[in-house]
Amino acid sequence: MTRTNVNGASRLFPIIGDPVRWVESPRRLTTTLTERGHDALCVPIEVTAADLDTVMAGLTASRNVDGLLVTMPHKGTAFAHCATASDAARRLGVVSIIRRNADGTWHGDMLDGIAFVKAQVEHGATVAGARALLIGAGGAGSAIAIALLQAGVGRLVIHDTDADRVGSFLAGIADLAAGRASAGPNDPTGFDLVLNATPLGMNEGDPLPVDPGQLTDAMFCGDVISGHGLTPFLAAAEAAGCATANGSHMVEAAQHLMVDFLVGPRGQ
User: Fold this and answer.
1) Relative to the CA of 95, which of 147, 169, 232, 262 has its CA 20 to 30 Å away?
2) Edge to edge, what strands does the sheet with 67-70 contain?
3) What pTM was estimated for this model as a whole?
């Protein structure tokens, strides 16, 4: 379903990022909002890091903007604009989505991890009790790690080129991990889930996050990258016989989660 009746009463939920060329939310979220009976739409706004504070001030003052989606590179800096936030967002210091509080301030949450795990399960992955290798400990990767632990993953190994970042993150989630999470190499041998949470694959010539020769058909492989078709990592995984889920599946899984956060449960 597409919007053909946009009017002055329509509520706005912009997505801010740089670049925004590849984002799928304007179409997907607008469709989901419309299907659920809301006169609202998502519009893309390209915002440089240097201009974020200025744009956030303008959006805060815009009374028909009820919430925001946040993508790279603003997930960390946008957190500072939130007066309140969820536990996951506070742990990470990042947000992927923001809605208005009753007093006009912003409340932030991080749905990337929940949506990513939901997409893996919907496409055949078993998370509870699984051995998972996660490549990337940035904003999305850290959120995915928390969601995997909350979903009952048995063992989680996180690899990132910035070892200090992994160490700091693991120290901050020690209570949640309860001994199940550690840092490690990007060797997928022996893992049930092999998950890419890095930008590797967005640009031609990027190296693969793992050695494709180490993938087997017993593994499930997931990738956060959307809007680029079949990534080289998932192409290698499928060639090895792995079941997969891609970034577009994650975007699709996030739609109802985002609408529930922004405007309330279905039917309300």
Assistant:
1) 232
2) 44-46, 15-17, 67-70, 97-100, 106-109, 84-85
3) 0.80
